[in-house]
Amino acid sequence: MRRWTVDDLNEAERELVLAVLGGGYLDLTGRTGNPEMPEIRGELIRQMMLDRFGWPGTERADPRGIRVSGARLAGGLDLAEVSSSLPLSLIDCHSAEPVRLRGAKLSTVDLTGLVAPRLIADEMTVERSLTLRNSVLGGGPFYAVHLGGARIGGVLNFSGARLSASEGPAMQASGLHTGSGVFINRGFHAEGTGEMGVVRLPGVVVGTMLNLAGATIRNPDGPSLVADYLRTGSNAVFYDGFEAEGTVRLVGAEIGGQLVCDDGRARPSRPGDLALHLSQVRITGHLLLAVSFPDGPLDVTGLTYGGRPGNATLTEWLEMLADRTPEYASQPYFQLAKAHSGAGHERNVKRIHLARQKDLLRRGDLGLSGRVWHRVAGVTVGYGYRPIVALLWLTGTLALSVLLVLLAGAAGLLGRCPPVEQVGLALNAVTPLVKVDHQRCVIDTSRGPGQAILAAGWVLQALTWAFLTLFVAGFTGLVRKSS
Fold it and tell me: What residues form the membrane-spanning segments (predicted)?
């Protein structure tokens, strides 16, 4: 292709050449008497970035690069596979054609306010930051933004951007790596369709923070955000009015700081879908999850975090685990118990495990015999966490035995047996551990009532031994281990 010179340029393009030579900034916004945006051809920018433009004399582009605002990029902008050390700043520029940066290797790129059908920048490498604040991209059936496999040395900034796709995802960034934060916040809005999700961040590695505060993502028939196996160096935040229509998926993600889900809402777009999918997520710091954030079912199986979860009470957490998870799983309860145990709240730990056992009885796969034993363990020793209950049952059994013998004495079935010896007879009948001389106290079994009392004593004796055994098992933790 022929190398362009100043003679090939229009007035706005000549001004741009002078600005680039002098390291200046060209502002074409709102030029008086010009109802349309001044035109700068994308090919001129490409030749400048490749150092193929015929600069006047021996002059060369200033290291501050190409800086212009308010231009219409005629013919689009194609920097695919271009390598350049010149910074590129195109502020509030419009393009009727897609902006192509596929495979490019650039210093820094600022496309704040860009209006274009698409940004195709997969496998792109940016030494410093890529900025698309307040950009408006999409409207067609394909990705509005494609950053799959891109490498950004600094910040990726989509704050306030508006992305849309009539079919499929609006943003595809699978395998993206950034050296610093990713900001998809402050009024960011994305709409798309389909099972793949609207904003796709699977396998993304974020050097520091992932920030979606104040973002809105809508999908009428699938997930909103898909960030499976995401890795962040610090926090991942969803708050300040964050709103998602469609499942928010972070399956297998590793969060290097806190995961904050508060002052926002994630709701499923279809009946039966999850609102929040945090299965197998590992959080180095704290989990701050408001009970109002997932407006629907959530999956927290395999979720681990440091410290006690915040922004929800223990009661709210237990209600979420019991009523809003798709099926019973023990791990979320054990993780919650571990967090409270680490904080020294042993009473809360018992409460959590009791709730776990109740959920297991309600939704777990126990079988008939397992369910029967579970009910017995719950009623008698609180699943091993309340052995005092078995002791109370034991005391009640002994009291019932004493009452039964006293009634027998009152009915004349014991002969001349003093009340004290009657009590001894009752205790000895149900628990041979208590030895009492009861030679004068013998139940008259020649009559029907006496036989019934003797049989009742055998039943009470069996119950006494059962409750004593359960108390010992609960006290030593055997019931907890078996259940």
Answer: 391-414, 458-479
At residue 421, φ and ψ (nearest 5 deg) are -70, -30
Asked if residue 34 is part of any domain, the answer here is no
Let me know whether 267 and 355 are in one domain.
Answer: yes
Q: Is the pLDDT of residue 408 over 70?
A: no
Two tokens, residue 191: 């709409």
Mean pLDDT of 391-399: 64
Q: What is the pLDDT of residues 247-285, one digit of tens each?
A: 999 999 999 999 999 999 999 999 999 999 999 999 999
CB 373 within 8 A of CB 473: no
Q: Which domain holds residue 394?
A: 384-482
* Count of alpha carbons within 13 angstroms of residue 288, beta-carbon side: 15
CB 408 within 8 A of CB 474: no
DSSP secondary structure code for residue 7 in this structure: G
Whether the predicted model's global pTM rises above the 0.85 cut: no
Residue 196 and residue 317 in one domain: yes
pLDDT reported for residue 470: 57
Q: Say which DSSP state 327 is in.
A: S
Count: domains in the chain: 2
17 falls within a domain:
no
Specify whether 419 is located in the same domain as 354.
Answer: no
Q: Does 188 fall in a domain?
A: yes
Could you identify the residue written with the tokens 């979320």?
332
